[in-house]
Design goal:
Helix content: 25-40%
Order of helices and strands: HHHHEHEHEEHEHEE
Shape: globular
Number of strands: 7
Number of helices: 8
Distance between the termini: 22 Å
CATH topology: Rossmann fold
CATH architecture: 3-Layer(aba) Sandwich
Length: 210
């Protein structure tokens, strides 16, 4: 993407308003999210696009669904035949549906509880924005650095991770990419679908471990 590319999301999203994910996702919000057919369809479409970008050749790949919520992306990936491990900070999301086939684990995405070089791919749909909610905060930067280090550690060689997320603006987007690339040996960059459309824009950070 051209360095001159600019955008700014003017409306406030929940991560702009609430101090943390627990404050926003009470039982009512979790139910609304998990039972939304619209969100399920949107996340399936985003997951399909993420797979196109990943270009996975191994149909038996072990994929980490990072920030899985109620399991929309993981369920779709599982139906395609991939082996899935799903992780989310909110236990109530993991319990909302019976997703035992997704091997759900409650954990903070910044502190991943896995040994080295076990995943063929990492897919994260619509969750990274919760991690970077306070721009230029030392805590935020350190959490993203820790996530980047863990992503590098747990990916197998010649594997990829993809993060679809909703940064507030181009500055935050570029800062996140810079942290991943400069703090680890990961290589990659952004793919942006419909860059000029605020409504249809989809941002993907694709990372390669050589």
């Amino acid at each position: 993407m051209n360095d001159g590319y600019k955008f700014e999301i003017k409306r406030k999203r929940p991560e702009d308003i609430y101090r943390n994910v627990f404050d926003y996702y009470d039982s009512d919000e979790i139910s609304k999210y998990a039972e939304s057919k619209s969100l399920m369809n949107i996340q399936e479409k985003i997951t399909i696009r993420a797979l196109e970008i990943l270009e996975l050749n191994n149909k038996n790949a072990l994929i980490l669904d990072l920030g899985c919520g109620p399991g929309f992306a993981g369920i779709y990936l599982n139906e395609l035949g991939y082996k899935i491990i799903s992780i989310d900070l909110l236990l109530d999301f993991l319990r909302y549906y019976d997703i035992k086939e997704l091997s759900p684990i409650q954990s903070d995405m910044s502190f991943l509880p896995f040994r080295s070089r076990i995943f063929d791919a990492i897919v994260s749909i619509s969750s990274l924005q919760w991690l970077h909610r306070i721009y230029h905060s030392k805590t935020t930067i350190n959490l993203i650095k820790n996530l980047a280090a863990d992503v590098y550690k747990i990916l197998k060689p010649s594997s990829k991770a993809i993060f679809q997320f909703y940064p507030k603006n181009d500055s935050i987007m570029k800062e996140i990419g810079k942290i991943f690339i400069e703090s680890t040996p990961l290589e990659g960059g952004f793919i942006i679908d419909n860059p000029e459309s605020a409504k249809k824009r989809q941002i993907f950070l694709i990372l390669n471990k050589n």
